[in-house]
Amino acid sequence: MIRLLQLELYKIFRRPRTYISFGVVTATAIIFQLAMGSGGKEFFEFGMQDISEQFNVQGNIINGYLVAYLILQSLLIQIPLLVALVAGDTLAGEANIGTLRLVLTRPITRTQLVLIKFAASTIYTILLITWLAVIALFLSLAIFGEGDMINLKSDAFVMILKDDVIWRYICAFGFAILAMTTIAALSMFLSAFADNGIGPIIATMGIVVVLTILSSLELPMFNAINPYLFTAHMVGWKGFFDADVPYAAIRHSAFILLLYTGGFLGGTLYYFNRKDINS
Amino acid sequence: MIRIAAIAVLLFIAPFRMLATDAGQLYYALRTKVLQVKDYTADVRLKIDIDYMKIPDLSGKLYYKAPDKMKMVRKDGISILPKKNINLTLSSLIPAGNVTVIDVGTATLKGRKLRILKVIPEEDNTGIVLSKIWVDEAAMLAYRTETTTKDEGTVTLDLEYGKYVKHSLPDKIAITMDVKEYKLPKGVTMDYSEIPKTEDLKEKMKDNKNKKGVIEIAYLNYVVNKGISDAVFKEMK
């Protein structure tokens, strides 16, 4: 099994498209850091207008912690695409180049193959989020320095002391890995139905975009379904940056994401085990 | 008979005249004492209790220079202080220049009998419309001020004295002020929260308007009238 996993990882990391994801994360973070370095204060003052009318807020506001948070927020939509780029290609990509039948002639079950490909996609997701942590957080800290972190919510101005921030980022990145694993499972599920990688990647992005719009609209007609959409729970990492971390809500969101991941993986196994493999 | 009547009238009027004069004298004496502090630095602990501001207690160094310079500095940290007229000194909340002082009697505050003065500024340059001051006449200390400002609502300052009473500097203050609404579009902030019902949202938005906030400062020590450079008050990055 370990040998097969190594083989899957080799397949993932020998394709140039895998490195596109790391390049996109790096470029986005650096562009954001340059922008915050040149006009970050003016940008943030715009968001702080209500506060600035009554209070003088002074000190190193545009610090590494704040910049990292803004980068994570801006990459909220892009990261699922980058995960889908690889996970959506796992089964459909093999079908496309005609190697799926060949792989299945080896003495492994279809269940084992799906689980190995899912494990490889999860490892890729972990590496991508870890790279995001390095570029967004540690590079921002190196450029902008440490400081207390301000988090502007729609109804609250949250300030977290600098000594109280790092553990929140560790938890937030952990949660982001969980959320992106759900996306990997969704992409793989869609990949099982397709015979080329483009379809599952676009379908994954379509689902994420539509559901994210539904999750962000505060319309009563959507409130009934919002708690059941995985996209509403994907932003659970932000909960770690509240003054009082809503652990119960985060646990609930993690449970929903695990449920979806299990559901997508189960669906993939169910369908793939019955699929007529022709290529 | 006429002389007796005149003496009776004088005896009746005199206390009121004395009271009116005393009120003015008391206010000016208090103000003179307060204004003797030209500058100070103090290690402080600040607690902000405003509904929409989720801020832990902040420790730092507070710099004050008369008449209106104030700055809090926290090493590598962010400091937050109320703006302009509502700064955290007694001197900024008692009107400057010529004033009309009205004695409105006495009241007991935390077991202390205090004289209440209403002070109306005659000049229009401080933004203060009316100030009500609770004064301990014997100690010549203000224990509470309630200041109505033009633009920033009503500000109440409660003071507790201890080690620095000779400078009229408090060990602890609580400033109660009107706070304005705070709201950002949820589409921009993309908040994570348990999804509330529409009625809850309306109630929350209503609650967010026109609230009172309390800021408490504990002064751990003071260095008074040692001179502070204006450069200290220049804004940091």
UniProtKB/TrEMBL annotation, chain A:
What are the transmembrane regions? Answer: 20-38, 66-92, 113-145, 165-190, 197-217, 254-272
Q: Name one Pfam family in it.
A: ABC2_membrane_2
Top-level taxon of origin: Bacteria
Keywords, alphabetical: Membrane, Transmembrane, Transmembrane helix
PANTHER family with a match to the protein in the record: INTEGRAL MEMBRANE PROTEIN-RELATED, MEMBRANE PROTEIN
Full protein name = ABC transporter permease subunit
* Source organism of the structure: Nemorincola caseinilytica
From TrEMBL, chain B:
Please identify the protein, giving its name as recorded.
Uncharacterized protein
Quote the Gene3D superfamilies the UniProt record gives.
Lipoprotein localisation LolA/LolB/LppX
Organism whose genome encodes this protein: Nemorincola caseinilytica
Q: Which superkingdom does the taxonomy of this entry point to?
A: Bacteria
